[in-house]
What we know:
Elements: H1 3-24, E1 39-41, E2 58-60, E3 63-65, E4 69-71, H2 79-95, E5 98-100, H3 105-109, E6 128-133, H4 143-153, E7 157-161, H5 164-169, H6 180-190, E8 195-198, H7 206-214, E9 219-221, H8 230-236, H9 241-249, H10 257-267, E10 273-276, H11 282-291, E11 295-298, H12 300-306, H13 310-330, H14 336-341, E12 345-347
Parallel strand pairs: 4-5, 4-11, 5-6, 6-7, 7-8, 8-9, 9-10, 10-11
Antiparallel strand pairs: 1-12, 2-3
Amino acid sequence: MNAPTNISAQTQNRKADHIRICLEEDVQSHQITNGLERYRFTHSCLPELNHNDIDISTTFLGKHLSAPLLISSMTGGTEQAAIINQRLAQVAQHYKIAMGVGSQRVAVEKPQVADTFAVRKYAPDVLLFANLGAVQLNYKYGLDECLRVVDILEADALILHINPLQECIQPQGDTNFRGLLDKISKLCIKLPVPVIAKEVGNGISAVIAQKLLAAGVAAIDVAGAGGTSWAKVESERAESPLQRRLGMTFADWGLPTAECITTIRAIAKDVPLIASGGLRHGLDVAAAIALGADIAGLAMPFLQAAATSETAVAELAEVLIAEITTVLFCTANTTLYQLRHSGSLQRIE
């Protein structure tokens, strides 16, 4: 009878550990980068534009965004996480940008913490993404649990995050990934909102993206390597020398974000595509858009700001918007569509 309580307590403790480790420890990739440093925008010293005419708005999954920004999935399930999510949601609402929450498994196991995810009251107009681990479909989760997390958030879509490396290193990780594609396919048919497939920092290859799209996934978040290493994060939580060694060995494992964007876009011209993984400023966002992404997600910069104050989150959003706008102005592009098709971004040989 005590097993569910023990499991939910473990999940909740893990949530608290993740926030603390990400904020206090060096868990960034160092040997692998997001790949965007291999590209450079061609500067236009005479853009022939009025800066005021630049429009960085877009649509994603049918919803209008004032900027191509996603506050990437991070947290929930603890008191600190509730404060962080509230701050993020209020800023997302003000700037009309998208937002995802962290894995809601803890809210399924422990319904009393569901309110730490329930940010729709702070962000009534925002594109919101619910979130569960895809592997949970092999651990007694199904349509009912997916509907529950969507309902908690009043979400516009469900992210299924796919994290085999993290589960290998995580204490008591869930490592049975057999037959998941078929279960994802059945879920996509039955769930009333779109499903987004997302990695957690090791990237999605074009081959896997093609399989996910064939299964009915509506959008892809590449979540490539080059940013926070969840192998490192789990190494910090290790309960044995083996787990710690695994985490450090695979600290820089994965596909760079830029490579994921270009290879997936090459085989799927129209798929709604989110670039995330090691993006740290608006120049990275603009480069990801120019490579073929529709919107770009940032997690660590928003987490650091949200741990400080809502004002810090708003200041970050202002900076990102200004940086993206400056790229368009200095490449003589008025819209994101023009930027993406302008050829302004060149690979450095």
